[in-house]
Specification:
Elements lengths: L10 H22 L6 H18 L7 H12 L3 H4 L1 H7 L14 H27 L19 H18 L3 H6 L10 H25 L5 H4 L2 H12 L6 H21 L3 H23 L9
Helix pairs in contact: 1-12, 2-6, 3-6, 6-9, 7-13, 9-13, 11-12
Length: 297
């Protein structure tokens, strides 16, 4: 079922046939394991996922209050004396002058947000995989086997999204919200440093949702695992434009189906990064015109 051709993009074949094949795999697994499913591993995955989602939430470690506290700590000249151990761990983050006056205050906030996502969505799940006897990185969706043969499929999926991005980019709501880093037009350094942070958190996101939360649960949940993964995936979009939240329902279902079909997270990662870059570039072009592209190189 790993092979994917243009004919397989027919909705009936892509969704219904894929879900049916995945559910048949569950039946075969039960028949060869005395009617049992690996429910314990599924429970383990979802408990770890709940912890990761909580830690990364904007109301806790992933939000602006937490990053602001870190800035206050780094900018306070008394921190090395009052908190020597913590300073020894975090003092290397301090620039030549206070972060608030450095000109990269907003980038620091967003960089912090991206790092928290990478820790919560990649590092912690990776540790959880490493210590569990029934989980392996090989089965989590990191294989690149067949990736090049699927590039045409990824392109076909991306083109209509790109058209939608271009159309939506003319709305005031879009240009007010994107790009997250408003100073990305200032220089090529600002743009590419921000995009590196952005891309890193997208890889972590795909690893977490389409890898860690989805692949290990296929033996017990089958195609229902796609819906179970899609719900928290949509919820992390709350606060963004409502059209993007509803689009996440569709995207989560498509990317989840694609990940189980190919047993790989790379399709979702490539599509996510392509869409994100397109949105940032489209927004900046709306604000600065075509001459802005020259500053990228």
């Amino acid at each position: 079922m790993n092979d994917l051709t243009l004919k397989d993009l027919d909705p009936r074949r892509f969704f219904l046939d894929t879900w049916r094949a995945i559910d048949n795999d569950v039946i075969r697994y039960r028949n060869t394991h005395g009617g049992k499913t690996d429910a314990a591993t599924t429970a383990y995955v979802y408990i770890v996922a709940a912890v990761c989602l909580t830690l990364s939430d904007l109301h806790y470690f992933g939000g602006i209050d937490a990053s602001e506290s870190l800035i206050v700590f780094l900018d306070d000249p008394m921190s090395p004396t009052l908190h020597p151990l913590l300073w020894s761990l975090l003092g290397w983050l301090k620039p030549d002058r206070p972060i608030f006056l450095s000109g990269y205050y907003d980038l620091f906030h967003l960089g912090y947000w991206a790092v928290v996502k990478v820790v919560a969505y990649l590092f912690i799940p990776a540790i959880a995989i490493a210590v569990h006897p029934k989980l392996s990185f090989r089965e989590i969706g990191l294989s690149t086997q067949g990736f090049l043969s699927h590039l045409m499929i990824y392109t076909v999926l991306f083109v209509p999204v790109l058209i939608a991005v271009i159309a939506v980019s003319f709305s005031a709501e879009f240009t007010e919200y994107y790009p997250f880093y408003e100073q990305s037009m200032r220089s090529s350094f600002d743009f590419w440093i921000w995009e590196l942070f952005y891309i890193a958190q997208f890889f972590a996101l795909e690893f977490f949702f389409r890898g860690f939360m989805l692949q290990p649960t296929r033996k017990s949940m089958g195609s229902a695992g796609i819906v179970a993964m899609m719900v928290p995936y949509v919820m992390i979009h709350y606060g963004k434009p409502i059209t993007e939240c509803f689009a996440a329902v569709i995207a989560g279902t498509i990317l989840g189906t694609l990940a189980l079909r190919t047993r790989s997270i790379w399709a979702g990662f490539l599509l996510h990064v392509s869409v994100a870059l397109s949105m940032d570039i489209a927004s900046n072009l709306q604000k600065g015109g075509w001459s802005w592209l020259k500053s990228l190189f």
